[in-house]
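chain below, 179 aa
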Amino acid sequence: LFFSFVSFSQMMPEAVSIFESELMELPFDEKLKRIDKAIQKKTSDPWNYWLKASVYELMNDDAKVRENYQKALIIDSNFSAAHASFSRYIYTNENPNLKEALKHINKAISLEPSDSYFHIDRGTIYLMTQQYDLAISEAKFVLGLQDDNEIPAGKLLLETTYMQGRKDILKNYLQRIEL
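prediction:
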């Protein structure tokens, strides 16, 4: 539904997941009305602000995206999904503030160190800042987790080694996956 991914290690509460499913087919204005009603009922639930930020992200309303991720993080500064989604939003914008994106993804990783999505995000930021060895380390970490994220981790590794010109790492990886 939304661009922001929720990691498998911090799943949405069931009620939020059901609510998100109900919102799926609605037009943006109706989604926002329903989320606002949910916020009025429970102002202390950061997931509602996370959902609202995701809707505004689809609407390309940068100020509202930022405002709602920040509200979610004010309510719960240890809300790893919000840190990660906010980071991803920041680094995929036209003029990304990679220092800010890295701050948020580092916080998410400090809260959930084995979340592969978070490490892929951090590796992508490292790739964007030409910190190739760090990007490769993140990709290798995810590949070592043996979860379902080998494809995005492999893509990160391939992109990084290509950008860095590290044919040795590229060759070893390709042999490992038998290409």
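Residues 1-10 have pLDDT under 50 and may be disordered. The chain has ten helices and no strands.
thats it, cya
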